[in-house]
Structures are given as C-alpha cells and as structure tokens.
Amino acid sequence: STIDNGASYRVVSLDENTALSITILCEQYKWKSCIIIYQNDEYGYNGMKFLTQKFSTMNIKTLEKIKFDIKQQNFQIDFKNTLRDSSSRIVIVWTNEKSTITILEKALEDNLIGPYFVWILTTTVALYYFNQRQNKELIGILTVEPVKGDFIDVPINTTLLNEAYKIWKYYEPDTVPGEANVSSYGLFTFDAT
C-alpha cells in the first residue's frame, strides 16, 4: 500500500488483529466515528491505514487523522482545539510507549481525558509514569493489546520458536535472555514472519 510519503509498507498480522479488535469494539458499542492519532513511522502509518480501511468497510468514519512526530515528540497541529472541535469523542492512539505517554500527558494538561472522551491505546503504559492525581484521571482508558496464543488456548508454532531460540543461541549466545524473558510481542512478530 502507498502511504503519503510514497513508501510501501507491510502490515504485520499482529497489527491487523489489533485493528480488527478495535473495529469490533467500535461496532459493539455502536460508535460511528473516531479520531486516530498515529506516529510518523512505519508502525504508525500501517496502523492508521489499516484502521481506516477496516472502519470504512464498517461505515465508521475517521473524522481526524492526527500525525504525531516521534522525533520532536509533538503534534504538527493544534491538538487541543482539533479534539475539542471534533464531533467524535473516540480517540484511538496508535503509537509506541514513549509517544503514548507524551500524548497522554498533553491530553491531561489540556483536560481532554475524562468523561468527554473515550481513549483507546494500542500500547500498554505503566501507571507509574503519572502522578496520583493523573492516575485518577486515566481511569476509563482502554488498551487493546495482543495476548499470546497459548495463554488463551490457541496453539502457537512452538517448533518454529524453538528453532529460532537455537539459532539465536548459536549465533548470539551472549544476548539470549532466556526463553522466559523474551517479550510476547517479540514472539508474535517472529511468528508473523
């Protein structure tokens, strides 16, 4: 698919599943429009593009697509007024952890979190990044994240993963953290390739 910078990107199946989950959530609650905040890299463009396509097939309108600059850690638009002036109150954030924290801090500062907006994140953010007052304001934010297949009785390709560990141990033995210390997101990414 061609994005606004003319590059072609591959959508990882994990991203597809996340977008599908968000689409189902919107459909279940009969939300008809949303605002998408995405980071300006392959991950962000892919997520925004795939969400927009999924929403289009379900007649869910994307009223705003807000690009977040991951190098500057800022928006290229008036974030506060864009959200306040939008008729949608569903905000989907498709960014990495660092950017998500910055976005939430800005939203807290501008009083954009609370009873007037529903925020859906695609990245888990630990609450210790925020003070006690902010933590109370963050109640109600939803996070859509993948779950390891074996956690919900869905088979994963253990043969492939075991082979990957063997190769890793052979070529980079000093960097292997042990099977229990490998992120489930890393396993998803590996299993998707």
Task: Give a short summary of the structure.
With about 190 residues, the chain is of the alpha/beta class. About 40% of the residues lie in helices and about 15% in strands.
What this model shows, in words?
The chain has 193 residues and is of the alpha/beta class. The protein folds into 2 domains: 13-143, Rossmann fold (3-Layer(aba) Sandwich), CATH 3.40.50.2300; 150-192, no CATH class. 42% of the residues lie in helices and 15% in strands. It contains 7 helices and 6 strands; from the N terminus they run H-E-H-E-E-H-E-H-E-H-E-H-H. Strands 3-2-1-4-5-6 form a 6-stranded mixed sheet, sandwiched between helices. It is globular. It starts with 12 loop residues before the first helix and ends with a helix. Residues 1-11 have low confidence and may be disordered.
- CATH homologous superfamily of the largest domain - what is it? Response regulator
Instruction: Examine the secondary-structure arrangement and name the CATH architecture of the largest domain.
Output: 3-Layer(aba) Sandwich
CATH topology of the largest domain: the name is Rossmann fold
Count of runs of 4 or more consecutive helical residues: 7
Within the largest sheet, what's the order of strands?
3-2-1-4-5-6
What percent of the residues sit in helical stretches (DSSP H or I)? Answer: 40-55%
**What is the domain total for the residues?**
2
Would you state the CATH class of the largest domain?
Alpha Beta
Identify low-pLDDT runs.
1-11
The assigned structural class equals alpha/beta
Q: Which shape, going by the Cα principal axes?
A: globular
Distance between the amino and carboxyl termini = 18 Å
Order of helices and strands: HEHEEHEHEHEHH
How many beta strands in the DSSP annotation?
A: 6
Indicate the proportion of strand residues. 15-25%
Major sheet description: 6 strands, mixed
Radius of gyration: 18 Å
**Overall pLDDT confidence:** 83
